[in-house]
Design goal:
The protein has one domain (5-263): HAD superfamily/HAD-like (Rossmann fold), CATH 3.40.50.1000. Helix content is 50%, strand content 17%. The chain has 264 residues and is of the alpha/beta class. The chain is globular. A seven-stranded mixed sheet has the order 5-4-3-1-6-7-8. It has a two-stranded antiparallel ribbon with strand order 2-9. Helix 6 crosses helix 11 (241-250). The termini are far apart. It has helices spanning 24-29, 35-51, 55-69, 74-89, 95-106, 119-129, 157-170, 187-191, 203-212, 236-239, 241-250, 252-263, and strands at 5-8, 93-94, 110-118, 133-142, 145-152, 178-181, 195-199, 216-217, 222-223. It is built from twelve helices and nine strands.
């Protein structure tokens, strides 16, 4: 018997900031990046929050972040993030998103987080929120370091393809399923289900929502997640959180390389 799901984007849909840039200060404290890079990250965060993350913005963020993460030692990153995870992430979860997730679970729907951020960022947050499944980017690790290459990039049209594949595998009725996102790059994901919502939409997604008659939701209340639900203790899986944000923007390299190969 077919059942249904609610598919959620991560940044600016569940979390009030870009997970890509949220760990700049802890990385500075741990010696991975300079104070100048922290200031550039703060500016990029501002641009992202104000202007959204269209394809051009994602490319600019990729150029900045891919320069930082290539060659980072995985163990060092995990150690830094293990000490800062809850301070950085836990207070910036939208209260409205938590309520929606709870409502869908009470209705018997699976909750699936679908994000261009890496599995290192998406999976631990999904666990904190009680989500059932994750679709996320996977980053290549070579000799214990991040190579800057992408094994799988969950971005734009690929999100929709992955949702349809998961629906076929699990048995979701997509016509009766739900999806939530803030970015115009996720229009294919929103088109893949029967009930779509634009959350804090960027300018272009707001236009698309009007054309498709998708409701617009405005989330404004970040909440300390501990106040809403019990959280698991920090552990090695959660400790890898920060790297996933880097994957999201670095993954444009994978997409561009793939297009070049296909066009060759």
């Amino acid at each position: 018997m077919a059942h249904t799901a609610a598919f959620f984007d991560l940044d600016k849909t569940i979390i009030a900031k870009s997970s890509t840039l949220a760990f700049s200060k802890p990385f500075q404290a741990g010696g991975l990046i300079t104070r100048r890079a922290v200031l550039r990250s703060a500016y990029a965060q501002f641009v992202y929050l104000v202007g959204g993350a269209d394809h051009d913005q994602m490319e600019k963020m990729r150029q900045f972040m891919s320069q930082l993460c290539t060659g980072w030692d995985v163990a060092t990153v995990r150690e830094i993030v293990a000490d800062t995870l809850y301070n950085v992430v836990e207070p910036i979860v939208y209260d409205e998103a938590v309520s929606l997730i709870e409502e869908h679970r009470l209705a018997g729907r699976d909750v699936v987080i679908v994000s261009a951020s890496g599995s290192e960022v998406v999976e631990p947050i999904a666990a904190m929120l009680g989500a059932d499944r994750v679709i996320a980017t996977r980053m290549e690790i070579v000799d214990g370091r991040y190579s800057g290459e992408i094994e799988y990039y969950a971005y734009a049209e690929e999100k929709a393809r992955a949702i349809r594949e998961l629906a076929e595998e699990v048995g979701y009725d997509l016509d009766d399923s739900y999806a939530y996102s803030d970015s115009v790059t996720d229009v294919p994901m929103l088109e893949a289900v029967g009930h779509s919502f634009a959350v804090n939409p960027d300018k272009e997604l707001r236009k698309a929502a009007s054309v498709h008659e998708w409701p617009v939701l405005v989330f404004t209340k970040p909440v300390a997640l501990r106040a809403r639900m019990p959280l698991p203790p920090a552990g090695p899986t959660l400790a890898a959180l920060a790297v996933g944000g880097v994957v999201a923007v670095g993954g444009v390299l994978w997409a561009n390389a793939r297009r070049r190969r296909l066009g060759a």
